[in-house]
Design a protein that fits this description.
Number of helices: 4
Radius of gyration: 18 Å
Shape: elongated
Largest sheet: none
Mean pLDDT: 79
Strand content: under 5%
Distance between the termini: 57 Å
Number of domains: 2
Order of helices and strands: HHHH
Number of strands: 0
Helix content: over 70%
Amino acid sequence: MTRKLLGAALMTAALITFGPVQAAKMHSAGCSAANLEKTETAIEAMADGDAKYTAQREVALAQDALLGGKMGACGMHLAKAMNAGR
């Protein structure tokens, strides 16, 4: 019984300690409405073609993920959109 309580207390302490760190990492990944807007502006300047289409599709997926609260997926799609023209 004591071990279970101690284990639960350690897990709670770890979540309290590392939870904000993970949230900060996700925020620094750049998944925000402002970064989506900047990426969309850059995509508009791209020449028409497969890279532009791919980037537009990834931005749409990033927007859906952002609205759904899936910050990890949003960051991944936004990164793919930013790198589509390279």
